Amino acid sequence: MSSSSSANRTIYIGGLAPHITEAHLVSYFSTYGDILDVQLPRPGPRRGQQEQVDSGAASGGGGGGGGGEQAPHRGFGFVDFSTAREAEDAIDNMHLNEIEGRVISVNLAKPSRKEAASGGNMRNRAVWQDEEWIKQYGTEQEGAAPEAAAGEPQTTDADA
């Protein structure tokens, strides 16, 4: 399967309420197909916040019933389906619908900046691991050796 089709399996969901969890997204979107992964990106710590978090943890966690609560997500998420068709069905049926009192936006996810900068289609693989590259360039190298061994004259720069 090509990597472009794997990109077409991931949808972006925007406009999510803060209390929505990965389990909520699975519940709402599993109707449209097999879900491989769900992500709700959470904000990273800002400068100076990490020290406060560390010192709060050292002093016993600082009151409240939050215990193991995570930081709220950033208001959007991603769902990765097993096929592009399932992702299209979810987009067609859920775009501009309401979840937990909020109208959501559902579209195909765009490649991450990191993936787009690396060309996106190689998925951090060496070129010789790509079947298309092997078909195009691998046969030329293999074909050159037998011709030279067949007794054809070879020219060098000195002959020219």
From TrEMBL:
Ranges of compositional bias, category Gly residues: 58-69
Region (Disordered): 40-76, 133-160
Keyword RNA-binding (UniProt): yes
This protein's UniProt keywords: RNA-binding
Signal peptide: none
Keyword RNA-binding attributed: yes
Descriptive protein name: RNA-binding domain-containing protein
Species of origin: Acaromyces ingoldii
Native organism taxonomy: Eukaryota, Fungi, Dikarya, Basidiomycota, Ustilaginomycotina
